Amino acid sequence: MILMSFFPSLKKGLNRWAKSTGFIKRQRGLSAKDFLVLMTIGQLGIKHPSLAAMVDAIKGRISREALHQRFSESAVKYMQTCARHVLKQKIGQARAIKTNLLKPFNRVMIVDSSSWDVDPQLADIFPGSGGSASAANCKLQAFYEYKHGELSFFEISAGTRSDAGYTHQLSDHVQAKDLLLTDLGYFCLETFHDIDAKGAFFLSRFLVGTLLFDARTGCPIELSRMLRSLSGNAYQFSVVMGSKKSTRVSCRLICLRVSEQIANERRRRLRKGAKKKGRTPSQLHLALCDWILMVTNIPESWLPAEMVRPFYSLRWQIELLFKQIKTVLCIDHTNTGNVYRVQCEIYGKLIMAVFIHRIHAVFNGQLWNLRHREVSMDKLYKRIQERAFVILRFILISVTTACDYLATEIPRLIKNCTKSNQLSRKTSLEILEYGLKNHSNVRKVPA
């Protein structure tokens, strides 16, 4: 069972990690396990996780003042070590989601970031943008492997560090036949070139201003002029991005027209944003409001152009992750300006996110492959939160007792977390499996 392999493997290393990081130097009232439990399931189960509430949760094994002193640099290192161990754990029961459009790829990797404001006292560690923005801000870089439901994290950093600062690391995490889904913040020709050279694949929004060339003739493409000449709703072109030989990327450019209502709203927001900065939007950017532009090196036989947009919508799975760790795990809420406690709380909440995703991966893969049903991530987070304090009590008794409880309880609650079939509102996975009933034909034309 998933839980019987998860908890004991973690328990074995706790005392060793606590000593190696200097968190525990001698026998104390608060054990390495107690502290980890407080920072993980404890924070999920305690509505207002103050020092007093945490002390009460472990039945007064340590005083409020003593617990406050336990938040230190060594405590942060201990929690980091626990988090790294949890991220490395593989769950044997997890099965890859089976659907034709995902089948060609070993892994479907989604990368994105999320940030939140923290106490201004933490500005030295987590500086914000200042001014009308926040004085202190924290950012999380995350990887989510969709096919197997595996969750991993890049780094917790200051909110001022841009996504582009991580772009060159992406290819290091990609292997042959992997697919990487990225947003514009990670757009980088060098990264796409390296991914392509590995025999892997990318799918991204197109960054306006990137040089484009006709793949057949090598002639430059004037994007705005080309789009103005198109009268239909969907087109694809074979192009080469970039002018430097060392970073040129051969790919498909897919152009999908949006509705007039959406285009007008885009232009309104574009003009409003430009006005705030004392600028006037260019005619190119105004014209591009009519289109969604995507680039990919995935062969058309694997991913037809009409399925590019719904396929790319898988990227929203990581947005759902960020929603849960903020609304349920409350990673963006803290009751302290103590930098060490804040970091311990963040790592504890991320460990809980990995744990819940491991459970989701096992049951979601099983349900989809057998019955084409899915487990709601939103419901699963909430159902586990409802049971968090009970789980906390059982873990403090013994890990075996907690595992026995969860082994019985989780399969039962999964039934209540299973998504219902809605014919009028298909999920992203259902669209990938059954296709789009009313999609426009995409014209393949020379640039």
What does this structure look like?
- The chain has 447 residues and is of the alpha/beta class.
- It has 16 helices and ten strands.
- The chain has helices at 2-20, 32-45, 51-57, 64-70, 73-88, 189-197, 223-228, 260-276, 283-288, 308-312, 316-327, 339-371, 377-386, 388-397, 399-417, 428-434; strands at residues 107-117, 137-145, 150-158, 178-182, 201-205, 212-214, 234-241, 249-257, 291-296, 443-444.
- Strands 1, 2, 3, 4, 5, 6, 7, 8, 9 and 10 form a ten-stranded mixed beta sheet that branches.
- α2 (32-45) packs across α12 (339-371).
- The longest helix has 33 residues, at 339-371.
- The radius of gyration is 24 Å and the shape is globular.
- It starts with a helix and ends with a strand.
Q: How confident is the prediction overall: mean pLDDT?
A: 87
Fraction of residues in β-strands? 5-15%
Specify the biggest β-sheet: 10 strands, mixed
Q: How far apart lie the N and C ends?
A: 55 Å
Unreliable residue stretches: none
Shape: globular
Number of helices: 16
Output the structural class.
alpha/beta
Over the alpha carbons, how many angstroms does the gyration radius reach? Answer: 24 Å
